[in-house]
Amino acid sequence: MRTYGQRDEWLEADGLGGFASGTATGVRTRRYHALLLTATTPPTGRVVLVNGFDAWITTSAGRFAISSQAYGGDVTYPDGASRIADFAIDPWPRWIYELPDGTRVAQEILVPKDASAVAMSWKRLSGSGPISLEVRPFVSGRDYHSLHHENPAFRFDAESTPDGLIRLRPYPDLPSIAMRTNGSYTHEPDWYRNFFYADERARGLDFAEDLASPGTLRFDLSRGEAAWLLAAEGHESALGGGRAEPALETLRTAERTRRAAFGSRLERSADSYLVRRGSGQTVVAGYPWFTDWGRDTFIALRGLCLATGRLDEAGQILVEWASAVSEGMLPNLFPDGKVQPEFNSVDASLWYLIAVSEYFAARAASGRRVAGAERKTLQDAFGEILTGYARGTRFGIRADEDGLLSAGVPGVQLTWMDAKVGDWVVTPRIGKPVEIQALWINALKIADTFTDQFRDLLAKAVGSFERRFWNEGGGFLYDVVDPDHRPGTADVALRPNQIFAVGGLPFPLLTGERARRIVDVVEEKLWTRLGLRTLSPDSSGYRGRYEGGPLQRDGAYHQGTAWPWLLGAFVDAWVRVRGGGAEIVLQARKRFLEPLEAHLDEAGLGHVSEIADGDAPHTPRGCPFQAWSVGEMLRLDRRVLATA
User: What predicted TM-score, i.e. pTM, was given to this entire model?
Assistant: First the structure.
């Protein structure tokens, strides 16, 4: 049985952009670890309402903690984490605590779908005699990126409602917190100061927080299971209309049935990223700190939805985003709060075209072709994007005389290698980046199946690509040609972006001996068990570890850090250049998929991390729960490496 530690994290997402999360030990190490974190304008406007709790069990042998908190000065108190006898993640997080007298108590946390709510429960599994439970909630009411500190404006008041709820409203401009419990509540307001978040300090950020505890919940476990249900204002219906026990059982039954319907553990995890936006749906790029990003959404959708047969959700997502087309571009990001969308991406719109094309194909294969208003909406968006790129749009994005797509202006990051610190764009890649050409030419080839409008442009681009990008001396493709718009020059850095010219897209741009040479050099220099390095270790700019403050981390983000999502295109290319076939597929599954499957039991449990160190042992870093990482693993499993 695997022993989980403080670096292993669990996630319970609500389908609205909110979530509960924490570590296997129960010690909160991030500002984002919380019980009730709600999205006030789904999937954005996230605020933390309830951060966590302390809990104690009293038996005839004494009073024992079953929780632990980290405080400043390297203090961990109380010692409840030392009593964890077992931890499991499925179907939702469950801990078993063993007390010195042999008493065993189970604790469970689950978040229902489509409600900003969370249910906690405790149940005695062994032992006899009197047994009671005390729970001290920790409350804030803050933006999820911020930290909370003791202040006189915090309101400790607790109100009892006629339908049996206890309601807290820490601040007047935030949603209130509704609680339903089968225990008693005693109002005992107090501040708990100087919580310490180790992961925040490691990231070079502020890491100390004060939290308010309005009172104590008390339960008699000898009479049965303890239930504590929480909901953000507007979601009280998830708590039921009467006693806590039947409300808890209703939530459990519904969630157990819903989760059991998924075809695999990874598919169940994939559901966490599909969330509501307006009247439609979108994809959260990653937990705990990302919202919905255009590029991430369209890459992830191919695995999260198309590979798993969730075609209705795929259509809703694509239609929802279609309304955001502006000047032939889709936003890269809808920021939190009332801020205008950001369009700083040359590839988000192109990935959208790939996703639309594959969605049409998937629907046709299912016998349910896209029709009516949905078809027109998607076709109009497709045409507007392709036309906008061909004639020119923001940030110097335009089809050049050679048919290739040129993009970029100083100070703006446009490709997926988008790290920026202040005015420093770490990997600007201005000019004609290689993966942008692969996407562009694929989009033109798709368009050529139903219109001849772009046929001449396509012919130019195809004719230019291999001639301009092939680096015979290195045996691979240049990363950018005409860098900084200097005609006839090229960036010779060995990066993974070239793999999209061979795999990961509907139409490979190179085949035969050159394609094989590309795959071989990428495997030799860039492949790791958790993804492709973003720069060869032979490069003077290589950074093998992603750690330190924002400047150090962003400086390494695309300078050697490995990215799991790139494995989808790489493995596809690896199989293609070997001619495919059952034996090659089995080799690929063992060599490339098995390490990812092992990774599901570390870091973000059941999920795939955003990034990992380029250097061995390739420690997982960044977001522990990343949509396109999960999506590309699903696409590998269900499509690229399908064995039946």
Answer: 0.96
Q: Tell me how far the alpha carbon of residue 618 is from its chain's centroid.
A: 19
User: What is the DSSP secondary structure assignment for residue 256, as one 8-state letter?
Assistant: H
Q: Report the alpha-carbon distance of residue 534 to residue 567 in Å, rounded.
A: 12
Residue 631, both tokens: 């999506």
Instruction: Assign 626 a pLDDT band (cuts: 50, 70, 90).
Output: very high
Distance CA 16, CA 24 (A): 24
Are the beta carbons of 54 and 67 closer than 8 angstroms? yes
**Radius of gyration over alpha carbons of the chain, in Å?**
26
Residue 1 has pLDDT above 60, yes or no: no
Q: Which residues contact 342 (CB under 8 A, 6 or more apart)?
A: 331, 332, 333, 335
Q: What is the tens place of the pLDDT at every residue in 335-352?
A: 665 567 889 999 999 999
- Continuous segment of H or E residues that includes residue 440: helix 434-447
Query: What mean pLDDT comes out for the span 102-106?
Result: 97
Beta bridge partners of 137: 53
> What is the predicted pLDDT for the residue at 338?
57
Phi/psi for 137 (5° steps) reads: -70, 145
HEC sequence for 405-462:
EEECCCCCCCCCCCCEECCEECCCCCEEEHHHHHHHHHHHHHHCCCCCCCHHHHHHHH
For residue 59, what are the contacts with CB-CB under 8 A and spacing of at least 6?
Answer: 99, 101, 103, 127, 129, 130, 131
Residue appearing with tokens 């966590």? 52
- 28/51 Cα distance (integer angstroms): 9
> Is the separation of the CB atoms in 65 and 235 below 8 Å?
no
Structure-token pair, residue 563? 């990215």
| Residue 508, token pair as written in the block | 């490979």
Neighbouring CB atoms inside 10 A of 380's CB total 12
CB half-sphere exposure, 242, CA atoms < 13 A: 5
CA 156 to chain centroid, in Å, comes to 34
pLDDT of residue 644: 52
Nearest CA to 593 among 523, 546, 640, 540? 640
Q: Nearest Cα to 9, choosing from 269, 253, 212?
A: 269
Residue 83: which pLDDT band, with cuts at 50, 70 and 90?
very high
Specify the residue for token string 């509540």.
185
Residue 78 one-letter amino acid: P
Among residues 450, 301, 276, 439, the alpha carbon closest in space to that of 362 is found at 301
132-143 and 44-59 as β-strands: parallel, antiparallel, unpaired? antiparallel
Mean pLDDT computed over 11-31: 98
The three-class DSSP label of residue 623 is: coil
**What pLDDT digit, counting tens, does each position of 400-424 carry?**
999 999 999 999 999 999 999 899 9
Greater confidence (334 vs 270) lies with: 270
